[in-house]
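anyone seen this seq b4? input:
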Amino acid sequence: MNRPEEISTQWSQELADLLVDGALPEDARREFLRRLDSIADGWRRLALTFLEAQTWRQSMGELLAPDRDARAPFPDEAAGSPRAAAGAKKFAIARPWRAGRWVFEVAALAAVFMIALALGSRLDNGRGQTGLPSVDHRADLAGNPAAAPPAPATADSPADNGPRQPVVSPWRLVSVPIGVGPDGAMTMVDLPVLDPEQPGEAATTPPGPYLPLPQFVDSLRQSGHAVEHQREYVPVDMPDGSRTLFPVDHLQIRFVGNRDYQ
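predicted toks r here
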């Protein structure tokens, strides 16, 4: 890249840095300067490179310079002495720094640190969620069965001896008056109804014990009611695509036993 024939008409920051540092050969330097006229903003970029290098030299020179107030001057380091002039010249020369390279190295170190931090956090979260031991712990468990983690609690384990929530049925029994019997007392019949405060899936739960339909009809007739019973079957499409029939009972109840009460 230092040969003149390898220098293209495109701007090269690397060649500009070498030129500023004085590391570019003479023939390559002349060719690079000659082609700056054909490069867009070539001379302006080169001037900015010189200013950047000068700024870095001044800044780093101040950081690397020793604390002059911390040491007492020797007698032979008086102003104008050859040793003092040589020392001043020595500390005035600073190592050239390249801004682009320094920024790139700092950015690379920051990226590596962030990647390591993210991987560590991800591994910690995964281990906390799964609860699995590490590779070394597994080897210890294989050699020492007593160090194995406790088995999960089963249905018979003491961990399940705590208070359990009672199972509440979504069905309720409602006492419905159906009339006055021959003895003058009000006849009540318990009918199963679904609690509206229960979730929708509770409707599939079968109700508790209740009075069967034949006994219910007999009790109505014994209490002085005329009952007409009709049953029809309604086809219903099931979720699996099949069709089934559900019985639907219709009851027509008419009280005929106590005319005075009516």
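Residues 4-97 form one domain. Strands lie at 171-180, 186-194, 225-237, 243-255. kinda curious what u guys think
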